[in-house]
């Protein structure tokens, strides 16, 4: 699985908004978001347009304006952010996994693609921005992290 720069930047910026929510510090400007995580400002603006369209962030105008989360950090999953900026979690040649069909020896391949999507959902949809910000990840994610080969390249 390739995690795009859009997703990486979006999650990092959303974590800053989650931190601002937790501290009660108010809206955060694009410039602040870009500076704090060393992200390209123009790219971040485009990402935030997608986040705003999906109601994950709200913009506030004015001298102290900027962005805030569209709902509490505990109610925004990493999967929500992923889908808002990059589309579905899993696609096969532009199709959803359950829409694929193969013949012959590959006839069972759609089942594997659906299982891959389900495993992505298990991790990304069950982990909220609040969980990620505090490091209190869901039990299943913690279990995956402690697997003997979890941190090894293959």
Automatic annotation (TrEMBL):
Protein name: BadM/Rrf2 family transcriptional regulator
GO MF term list: DNA binding; DNA-binding transcription factor activity
Cited Gene3D superfamilies: Winged helix-like DNA-binding domain superfamily/Winged helix DNA-binding domain
Xref: PANTHER family: HTH-TYPE TRANSCRIPTIONAL REGULATOR ISCR, WINGED HELIX-TURN-HELIX TRANSCRIPTIONAL REGULATOR, RRF2 FAMILY
Entry keywords, A to Z: DNA-binding
Gene Ontology CC terms: cytosol
Organism listed in the record: Humibacillus xanthopallidus
Annotated InterPro entries: Tscrpt_reg_Rrf2 (IPR000944), WH-like_DNA-bd_sf (IPR036388), WH_DNA-bd_sf (IPR036390)
């Amino acid at each position: 699985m390739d995690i795009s720069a859009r997703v990486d930047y979006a999650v990092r910026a959303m974590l800053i908004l989650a931190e601002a929510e937790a501290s009660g510090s108010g809206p955060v400007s694009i410039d602040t978001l870009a500076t704090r995580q060393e992200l390209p400002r123009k790219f971040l603006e485009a990402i935030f347009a997608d986040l705003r369209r999906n109601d994950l962030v709200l913009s506030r105008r004015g001298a102290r304006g900027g962005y805030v989360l569209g709902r509490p950090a505990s109610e925004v999953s990493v999967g929500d952010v992923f889908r808002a900026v990059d589309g579905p979690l899993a696609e096969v040649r532009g199709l959803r996994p359950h829409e694929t069909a193969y013949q012959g020896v590959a006839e069972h391949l759609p089942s594997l693609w659906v299982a891959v999507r389900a495993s992505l959902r298990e991790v990304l949809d069950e982990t909220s921005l609040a969980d990620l910000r505090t490091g209190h990840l869901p039990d299943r994610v913690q279990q995956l992290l402690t697997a003997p080969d979890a941190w090894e390249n293959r």
